[in-house]
Predict the 3D structure of the following.
Amino acid sequence: MSFSVHNVGCVSGGEAFLLLVDSGKTALIDSGFLFTAKGTVKKISDILGDRPLDYILLTHSHYDHVSGSVAVKKRWPDAKVVSAEHAADVFNKPNAVKTMMKLNRAAAIAFRKSPFFMGNLKGLHTDIRVKEGDIIDLGTMRFKVLESPGHTWDTIAFWCEEERFLIANETLGVFASAEDIAPACLVSCKRTLDFIHRVKELDPDKILMPHYDVVYGDDCRKTTFMAERDTEKMRDIILENYDNGKTEEEIKQIVKDIIWVGPMRKGQPEAAFDLNNKYVVPTIIKEYRSSK
Ligand SMILES: [Fe+2]
C-alpha cells in the first residue's frame, strides 16, 4: 500500500483524517470543530514534521467537517482547500457562517469546553471548487471527484482507481455499530441510494468512512450492504406509516422507536438521531409521495 491514513481529530464527531502518500504528497480530509482545531493542528504538525500539507479536502459544508480548516489553513497557507461549488458558496454566506458559529459554540459546551477561546470562522473559504470527474493529483495517487448528493447537496467523495480506495462521506451513512449504519439522507434518499449503488459497482477495497476510519476488503462490501439495507429500511418504515395516515411527528417517533435501539442507541447520541430524523422524514415523504 502506498499510503497511510491518520485520525487527527480530537473528539468523537469531530474527526479529521491525514492522508500521507508515498509520493510525498499529503492531504487532510475534513477538519472537525472549531474548538478542536488547535488540537488537530498539533496532531497534524506532529505527524508531518517538515513535510508540507498540500490539500484540505472538504467532503461537505457541515460545520463539524469544515470549521477546523480555518486554523489548518493559517498554519499551512499553501494548502489548497477543496470543496464542491455549492459548499464554497455556503462559506460566503454570512448567515450560514453565523449558524456554524452557533453550532460550534453548542458543540464546545456539549464537550464541556469553553467556547470563549475557540476562535472564529474568519477566513473560511475554498481555493479549488470541484465537480464530478475533476482530479486531485497526489503524485502516485490520483483521486477522481464523485459528486454524491444525498446527505447535503454539496457532498463529494474521492475515488482512487489504482488503490481501489474511496474517501467516502455521510451520504453513505455513519456507523452506529459494527452491524448498523445510521442513514443520513438529509436532502435526498433517492440520490443517496444512487450513490450507494455506485459504490457497490466500484467495489472498493478500502473505504474511509466518515466519523470512523478506514475499512478494508470484505468489510467494504459489508459496509455498502448495510448502507443500502438500513437506508431502504428507514425509507420503507416512513412510507408505510405515511400511507397509513400517520403524521410527520408520529412517524418521527415510530422511526425512533424501531431504529434507535440496541447497538445503534449506544453508538449514536439521541440529539444527533433526532436532528437527522427531523430532516430525513419530510425529505423521504416529499420525494416519494409528492403527488399526494
Ligand atoms: Fe454532515
